[in-house]
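FW: tagging you since you asked about this chain on Friday. Here's the raw sequence from the shared folder, copied in full. Didn't touch anything.
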Amino acid sequence: MTDFTLICPDCGGAILVRIGAQDSSTPTAIVESNGEVAQGSKALTKDGRQAYNQDYPPEFLKFWHIYPRHRDKRKALKAWRNAIQRAPQLTINAGALRYRNDPNRIEQFTKYAEGWLNADGWEDEPLPPRQPALGWLDETYRRATHGGP
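HL: got it, structure written out here
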């Protein structure tokens, strides 16, 4: 077994590499000069796969904070990366803010960020005003189904 050290180009820490180790020939540790781990691969999941990198750009996180529905974040990131090629981030964020604050938006019918971004939702006009409830129709239905005056 042979050990040698490389310098990490990102953090300047030392990378200890063991060649010929019985378990594998991959780097076993990345250590700074003070002996602490500077960086390493993410822990493996239970089935032995490497965990997905969940680092999101700060610009995307700003959009994510503005957008009213937080589902499928990874899919939204992919759609956001495509969307910023078509429009400035400021325009996209302004559209998301307008959509979030729209008084006619119904929470349960809010689009997922992925669909909104893929459809260029920042270019949409405001939602149409909701129709007032038809109380007289509800009352007519109640009378017809439950009887009474």
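FW: Residues 73-86 form the longest helix (14 residues).
HL: agreed, and The chain has five helices and three strands.
FW: great, closing this out.
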